[in-house]
Amino acid sequence: MKRLAMSGGATAATLVPAAALAADGQGSPSLFMLTLQMVAALAVVLGLIYLFYHLSNRWLKLGAPMGGGERHIRLVETRHLAPKKSLVLVEVGGEYLLLGSSSDNLTFLKQIDILEEIEVIDDPEKQSTMAALFQGKLDAMAAKIAAIKQGRADSPSRRAEKF
């Protein structure tokens, strides 16, 4: 039992370095020197981590072309149909592939051979005309809804006039 109590006290004493407890400076390093040693060790460890990171990136990317390399796969468009379900149009080596994507698989649907089948709008002028066309349709629909609401508001008075 005495050994247990003594070992408990000894572990508490080992948590605090003996050099930090000795304030007389006779033969033992000071707290400043210990802190300086710790900072230097930390700098060495961080330097080694950075060195290994840099070398691993350099060695692992030797086989892959850098950012300026030619790309053979391009995602043309994605249309979401439902949660976790979508259609994906991909260009691979000049050929267009239509793929179906769900949460657990990717399915080949169709190979599109003719470029004219795909309507790609990259011209900003065409996009602005499409936006204007959409805005016109939206305004017409809003006017119809307003007319319907106006007709319902007038309907009780019309009923009174008819009787």
Automatic annotation (TrEMBL):
<protein>
    <recommendedName>
        <fullName>Flagellar protein</fullName>
    </recommendedName>
</protein>
<keyword id="KW-0472">Membrane</keyword>
<keyword id="KW-0282">Flagellum</keyword>
<feature type="signal peptide">
    <location>
        <begin position="1"/>
        <end position="22"/>
    </location>
</feature>
<dbReference type="GO" id="GO:0005886">
    <property type="term" value="C:plasma membrane"/>
</dbReference>
<keyword id="KW-0966">Cell projection</keyword>
<dbReference type="InterPro" id="IPR052205">
    <property type="entry name" value="FliO/MopB"/>
</dbReference>
<dbReference type="GO" id="GO:0009425">
    <property type="term" value="C:bacterial-type flagellum basal body"/>
</dbReference>
<feature type="transmembrane region" description="Helical">
    <location>
        <begin position="32"/>
        <end position="53"/>
    </location>
</feature>
<keyword id="KW-0812">Transmembrane</keyword>
<keyword id="KW-1003">Cell membrane</keyword>
<keyword id="KW-0732">Signal</keyword>
<keyword id="KW-0969">Cilium</keyword>
<dbReference type="GO" id="GO:0044781">
    <property type="term" value="P:bacterial-type flagellum organization"/>
</dbReference>
<dbReference type="InterPro" id="IPR022781">
    <property type="entry name" value="Flagellar_biosynth_FliO"/>
</dbReference>
<keyword id="KW-0975">Bacterial flagellum</keyword>
<keyword id="KW-1133">Transmembrane helix</keyword>
<dbReference type="Pfam" id="PF04347">
    <property type="entry name" value="FliO"/>
</dbReference>
<comment type="similarity">
    <text>Belongs to the FliO/MopB family.</text>
</comment>
